[in-house]
Amino acid sequence: MKRQWITLLLFLITLLGILLSWNWRHVQHFPQMIPASYPQPVEVFSDTPISFPPVNADRLLSDLKNLSFPRSAEADRQLARRYILEQLEAAGWKPQMQRFENGINIYADRPGTDPNGSVILLGAHYDSVESSPGADDNATAVATTLEAARLFQKEQTLRTLRVVFFDAEEKGLLGSIAYVEQLEEPAKLQGAVIMDMLGYRCNEPGCQTYPSVLPVKPPNDRGNFLAVIGDQGHPALTDSFTDANQPGLPQILSLSIPTFGGFTPDLVRSDHAPFWRAGIGAVLVTDTANFRNPHYHQPTDTIDTIDRSFFSGSAQTVINAIAILLQGGTS
């Protein structure tokens, strides 16, 4: 009985923190669902303007096609790793592999000019569940990470960009747990942007659902937005997505939660969770997975179900936010 009371208390603390930390500035925009208008380029921390490199929709689609096959068995994950390594090397990166008991992570750095060596991490898991092609989950995010690697490889930025491709997320976040446990110089990591499913949109009334613990009434019941879930202690990460939003890109729904006490399970189901538990700032960028996509973890999660316009818009939103963070923006 005492254990049950402790569990209930932790849940209430988490819920209270959500209530206190909800980003009300963003909520005000949702009933109208009108994209915020921000000038480009955005000047954030200096007189040097920040440009947003445009994504190449054809490259995104090519990556998506090449990665949309079941990636659960070791042989299939090896094929995915080979493709990722080839694309990184072709873009001028020097990828490395981090082996752990249950898989292999891939990572690479493109150094910035900051003498302190500050780093922004962009990551996605490359495995899928058994028997699912995993087009949305999570080939969309892997393709976006590869596109970011191409676009920023020759850019001069203040912070170092680190791209990471996690293995064994579907087996219990094993890749990201191993990565965080073995992380060298964690103080240099200024934040992690973790993507998990970026390509599914639905516009039918009632097609979008939400976790029952949301502290406010959801903006609508249609899945035409991109969710950004961050921790309360690092608002710059969630703010970068609001600052980067432009007309024509998906609407942003952002939520900052406290990282003390317990978590409701729906908020810690992806690779951002190990960073939170280690006290490192991180955001999850997602199309909300099973709260919208009926093909989640199914054999029907194929490229044919991807909304290509929404996917490319989601990728551009991520690129814009990373561009701001790499220049020290919103800090």
Structural class: alpha/beta
Number of helices: 9
User: Could you list the spans in which at least 5 consecutive residues all have pLDDT below 50?
Assistant: 1-47
Sheet with most strands: strand arrangement = 1-2-4-3-5-8-6-7
Query: What is the terminal separation in angstroms?
Result: 45 Å
Q: What sort of overall outline do the alpha carbons produce when their principal axes are compared? A: globular
Give the amount of beta strand, in percent. Answer: 15-25%
Tell me how many strands there are. Answer: 8
Radius of gyration over C-alpha positions, nearest whole angstrom: 19 Å
State the helicity in percent bands.
25-40%
Mean pLDDT: 86
Question: What pattern of helices and strands is seen along the backbone?
Answer: HHHHEEEHEHEEHEHEH
Main β-sheet description: 8 strands, mixed
Explain this structure.
It is a single chain. By secondary structure, the protein is an alpha/beta fold. 34% of the residues lie in helices and 16% in strands. The chain is built from 9 helices and 8 strands. An 8-stranded mixed beta sheet has the order 1-2-4-3-5-8-6-7, sandwiched between helices. The protein is globular. 47% of the residues are buried.
Keywords for this entry:
disordered N terminus; 8-stranded mixed beta sheet; 8 strands; 331 residues
Summarize this, please?
With 331 residues, the protein is of the alpha/beta class. It is 34% helix and 16% strand.
